[in-house]
Protein: Aspartate carbamoyltransferase
Amino acid sequence: MSAPVTPSFPHRHLLGIEGLTRPEIEGLLDRADAAVDVSRQVEKKRNVLRGRTQINLFFEPSTRTQSSFELAGKRLGADVMNMSVASSSVKKGETLIDTAATLNAMRPDIIVVRHHSAGAVHLLARKVDCAVVNAGDGAHEHPTQALLDALTIRRNKGGIEGLQVAICGDVLHSRVARSNIILLQALGARVRVIGPSTLLPTGIERFGVEVFTDMRAGLSGCDIVMMLRLQRERMNGSFVPSVKEYFRYFGLDRDKLRLARPDALVMHPGPMNRGVEIASDVADGAQSLIREQVEMGVAVRMAVLEALATHLPNA
Ligand code: CP
Structure:
């Protein structure tokens, strides 16, 4: 990757978007832009993390985040080890702290963690000596998802300042929504959330977002329509709507998309449930950025690992 074009990233860990300044966020996005160029070259390998060990520790399933962190680490030259709960001693009752201490004793340089509990990644970061990256903790934060979403928007719209972004669906259980609200507002976007009142956090207005429970009203004038899946794994059975009815009122189809700006772009962090929150022809249509988000995911994770590498011993 190119020499850093940004102010250096001052944090040892990336635990959330909350607490990052606008220049720090923009610095990571600039690094990620450079990483896109690297990823598109035939020879993708760089030596930024050569000799370093990266452990991907996933307590929840993942397709995009885990594989893109693995690719990002390998493209930067790291030795990458993937650990899932299914194949670990967590299944035998080992605690998060003991798991962290065990891995720490093997002297990794970076641990990337996904966990079902909000705050678990912060706790783990206090127990290890290496850099820690939050790959999603409960309904709390998913910082690299918000960064890749911002990079995708910036590259397609030329900037984020002044854009009207709608985040639609199950906002209540979404770490993606939370990280995106913080990040997009930090970069000057206006954010609205749209969903049934049962899937919107009580008092979310205090975060400066506009709230709509009518999707047709909420989509009016939007530049970006970001769809979220129903995160049933965090609902404890409390809200399982009829899929047909949910799609009728809150699913994005071509008819509803016409209510946004004509040049509006559609995003989804994945995994998608076609026919539940988004129609197939919209997901695969000309206004969709969903595949580009996946590509930007690798670049953003390369940028984050590169930024954290500057704090590793003997860097
Ligand atoms: N967006 C996202 O976090 O996807 P995965 O669960 O597949 O990693």
